[in-house]
């Protein structure tokens, strides 16, 4: 039986990793990490996330330059570049409907209603960048936790030049490049816990500014 770390422990102990060893990631683990992310929930199940898995040393070197020269981008054996496709839903809606029907979610009435709702919602959406970011970050975060559960270390990043990343990876203009996730094995000492704001600043009960009472 594999020794997977429990989520409660990971939540306590995970740190954003800055320095990675050259040691690689097992293909089976990488696939499990990716598939975990692909099981994330998304609005209408439209899955607008697109991931570029960067392993090639040359590509990692170029990506590092596009990412503020952050050394972890080149050091980590894998960097997952999480993107959101702002137009893909127009194509994917029919496949998502087909999948829903295949899995017994609904019939023709369900399909028509879903098509109508999606087009009404997304056809005139005021901020598709925001919409794809919401979905994609859940999938990417799921990958982060799965990687940690399998015993790897992770470095989340938004410090990059979007256009430069697009150029290095050949990412189309209608994709937003949202997030980089370095995965590998920590080299040296992990970062220290930097602390968190008091929950009184960030969590409220029933309405904003009404304190949520933690019992401990
Ligand atoms: C969306 C996002 C973007 C981040 N971007 C960077 C980055 O570009 N470079 C970096 O060194 N750390 C980056 N971090 C890591 C944060 O600095 C780190 O998570 C935070 O300081 C809390 O530390 P902890 O994760 O160890 O608890 C990022 C984290 C997140 C969630």
Provide keyphrases for this structure:
216 residues; alpha+beta; NADH Oxidase; four-stranded antiparallel β-sheet; 9 helices; globular; binds flavin mononucleotide
Helical residues, percent? 40-55%
State the fourth-level CATH superfamily: NADH Oxidase
Beta-strand content bin: 5-15%
User: Could you describe the largest sheet, including whether it forms a barrel?
Assistant: 4 strands, antiparallel
Q: In angstroms, what is the radius of gyration?
A: 20 Å
> Number of DSSP helices?
9
- How many domains in all? 1
| Principal-axis shape | globular
Secondary structure: number of strands:
4
Average pLDDT score: 97
Bound molecules: flavin mononucleotide
CATH topology: NADH Oxidase
CATH-derived architecture = 3-Layer(aba) Sandwich
List the helices and strands and how they pair.
Elements: H1 7-13, H2 27-38, E1 49-54, H3 57-66, H4 71-75, E2 78-85, H5 89-102, H6 108-122, H7 128-149, E3 153-157, H8 162-169, E4 175-184, H9 199-202
Antiparallel strand pairs: 1-2, 2-4, 3-4
Helix pairs in contact: 2-7, 3-8, 5-6
This protein binds flavin mononucleotide.
